[in-house]
Amino acid sequence: MSHYRGPRFKKIRRLGALPGLTRRKKKPKKRKGDSRRDSSFITPPRSSRKKSQYRIRLEEKQRVRFHYGLTERQLLKYVRIAGKAKGPTGQVLLQLLEMRLDNTLFRLGMASTIPRARQLVNHRHILVNGRIVDIPSYRCKPRDIITAREKEKSRALIQNYLDSAPRKAPRKAVPNHLTTHRRQYKGLVKQIIDRKWVGLKINEFLVVEYYSRKI
């Protein structure tokens, strides 16, 4: 299935921060002829019209989709699975998405974005419990041990990311359901993720409401 390959900055300008899609951040706009980076010179939004309820739900759904790098069909499938599981559908949905292997690699700090993590998995650089797993949607379980292959190239790809990360920037906090050993290129899944540690600020109930007519 194809994933989004268009301009990423355009998406975060429209939907807000999407850390799984890109590390880039929206910069404040300046007036022409002024070189100062002052918040008083930020231009107001083009439209102050009140958003419809449909648009609010659509944008929330799109944030989930682009952050986790899913197609529309994949996200709908996850919503249907969550709807049949025990517990609140929105919470189960986020747990399913967060426990994907590509997202887990990203949360462990082994890749800069989820698309980069997906590439590592697709190219067979990642082991789960000592076996190669090349399926980004693999659902990680408690006690899974995730490591880079011992091949020099596999570990070099992860090390290049670690070396390129800005030194002054604070490191992403590893969520409490994971343990990471970066020097060993290794991570451990301790438990199913808790809602408060989800990597995207999102209202999952709006996403479920958007799909309510399709499930």
Automatic annotation (TrEMBL):
UniProt KW Glycoprotein keyword: no
Subunit structure, interactors included: Part of the 30S ribosomal subunit. Contacts protein S5. The interaction surface between S4 and S5 is involved in control of translational fidelity.
Matching PANTHER family: 30S 40S RIBOSOMAL PROTEIN, SMALL RIBOSOMAL SUBUNIT PROTEIN US4M
Family stated for the protein in its record: Belongs to the universal ribosomal protein uS4 family.
GO terms (BP aspect): ribosomal small subunit biogenesis; translation
One cellular component term from this protein's GO annotations in UniProt: chloroplast
Keywords: Chloroplast, Plastid, Ribonucleoprotein, Ribosomal protein, RNA-binding, rRNA-binding
Subcellular location: Plastid, Chloroplast
GO molecular function, one term: structural constituent of ribosome
Signal peptide interval: none
Protein name, UniProt field: Small ribosomal subunit protein uS4c
